[in-house]
From TrEMBL:
One of its GO terms (molecular function) is diguanylate cyclase activity. It holds the Pfam family MASE4. This is diguanylate cyclase. Residues 323-462 form the GGDEF domain. It comes from Paraburkholderia guartelaensis.
Length: 465
């Protein structure tokens, strides 16, 4: 099972992703004209956003790596590498940023170290998404090449993380010029502001190329395609608004920080949703397996194992509450002769029909929850009747006997129809007993019915003490 993330997207999922994409673009259209408008400064906002991006990107990288380990889909490993790269670069940018942990930044930060880490962060993510799309179908996962693919896959995750660390070393040892030009010297138009910042222009272009490649390669068929496009749109808006206003505490700066958190956060939400959906699916399949294991494969009524467990529980419950508990044992008359005459396939069909008649009788006559029909063994069945006294149990047994006879199944035995014999026994409401004693009493009553001529109901002489 590949999982929901790389499964086909439903119409509802596509609609929801489209609404998110529209909201992102609408926000850009509203914020861009006022990107450089100053707002009150909130100093902790930037480190809070950076920590959020680091946390969500780390979680996304881990979950994508786990999905790669389970599916061996190389694209997931490459996307995990993109988010690992983001986590490390944003962490380094936060540590190097002047005034957050130290006046000039940590790690021996130079004047433009934090700015360059921001550039690497925002350029690296779409660039690595492009890599993920390029390896989408070039690294299949054939069974005979799993070890080789594993090595390539883990390299796709570890490689970007190592590159991010090396870039951190670079910007703290080489005094690079500022990647941004002061937009105050540029024309006031937003497009002019972007054009005068080559780094921002390159980042925006990388995001658009990555979006185009996802659309071209995946055509939005997969759930993953939908949300990668949404994440790339958020990354594009983040870069565009930051390029429009490199000054802190402006409309563009604040909105860009929100989208910087959204880009990894949206995929984390999808991954967590996938895990939740898979757990729910697993729970449903487990419940189905449990139900199937309790059923007799031939007759579809409960099997002997279920009877042994549930009958003991019903008996103990009756002992605690003082309520009656009745057991009806039924046996198909002359079933060996029926098999000999018609063959085992017809014999199997006969048992299935008898079981269906017994189940229908129980469903229509027993109003107390907990009663059930079970195949006790061979051609023998059991009806467990909680909160049912001896007279009522005998009436249920008689209706069950009549229902089988009314099936009209031809038989080579005397009478010409398939019939059943039944024995009833009821636990005494006052004196304690054991489950085996009740079974033995019902068996004894069944044998009495067979010895008396079959196709009849026999009762245990008294309630079982």
């Amino acid at each position: 099972m590949d999982g929901l993330l790389i499964g086909p997207a439903t119409r509802r999922q596509a609609l929801f992703a489209s609404v998110c994409a529209f909201a992102i673009l609408l926000t850009l259209a509203l914020a861009a004209p006022r990107a450089r408008d100053a707002l009150p400064g909130i100093a902790p906002f930037m480190p809070m956003c950076a920590l959020t991006v680091f946390t969500t990107s780390s979680i996304a990288a881990f979950l994508l790596g786990a999905r790669f380990a389970a599916t061996r889909v190389a694209m997931l490993a490459a996307l995990g590498g993109a988010y690992a790269f983001t986590a490390i670069t944003v962490a380094l940018q936060l540590l190097m940023f002047p005034g957050v942990f130290a006046r000039t930044g940590l790690l021996g930060a130079l004047p433009n170290s934090a700015a360059w880490m921001w550039v690497f962060w925002h350029a690296g993510f779409p660039a690595l998404v492009i890599v993920a799309e390029l390896v989408r179908k070039r690294l299949p996962a054939p069974p005979f090449a799993r070890e080789r693919l594993d090595a390539r896959g883990w390299l796709l995750i570890a490689g970007p993380a190592a590159v991010a660390a090396l870039l951190g070393v670079l910007v703290t040892h080489v005094d690079l010029a500022s990647p941004f030009r002061d937009v105050a010297d540029a024309a006031p138009a937003p497009a002019s502001a972007i054009a005068n910042n080559l780094a921002g222009l390159v980042i925006c272009a990388l995001n658009l190329i990555a979006i185009a490649l996802v659309l071209l390669k995946g055509r939005l068929r997969l759930v993953l395609d939908l949300w990668i496009v949404v994440a790339l749109l958020a990354s594009f808006v983040d870069a565009a608004l930051n390029t429009l206003s490199i000054e802190r505490f402006t409309v563009g700066w604040y909105v860009a920080r929100v989208f910087s958190m959204f880009a990894p956060g949206v995929l984390v939400c999808v991954l967590v949703w996938e895990v939740t959906a898979l757990y729910r699916q697993l729970a449903e399949e487990h419940a189905t397996l449990i139900r199937a294991s309790a059923r007799d494969a031939l007759t579809r009524v409960y099997n002997r194992s279920y009877f042994d467990e549930q009958f003991r529980e019903a008996f103990e419950r009756a002992a605690r509450t003082g309520q009656p508990l009745s057991l009806v044992m039924l046996d198909v008359d002359h079933f060996k002769h029926y098999n000999d005459a018609f063959g085992h396939l017809h014999g199997d069909a006969c048992l299935g029909a008898v079981a269906g008649a017994l189940a229908a009788t129980l469903a229509s006559t027993l109003h107390t929850p907990g009663g059930f029909v079970a195949r006790y063994g061979g051609e023998e069945f059991a009806l467990v009747l909680p909160d049912t006294g001896a007279d009522e149990a005998a009436a249920v047994a008689e209706r069950a006997r009549a229902a089988v006879e009314q099936l009209g199944i031809p038989s080579p035995a005397a009478g010409g129809l398939v019939t059943v014999s039944a024995g009833c026994a009821t636990r005494d409401a006052i004196v304690a007993s054991s489950p085996n004693a009740l079974i033995e009493a019902a068996d004894a009553a069944l044998y009495a019915a067979k010895h008396a001529g079959r196709n009849r109901v026999s009762h245990a002489g008294a309630s079982i003490a």
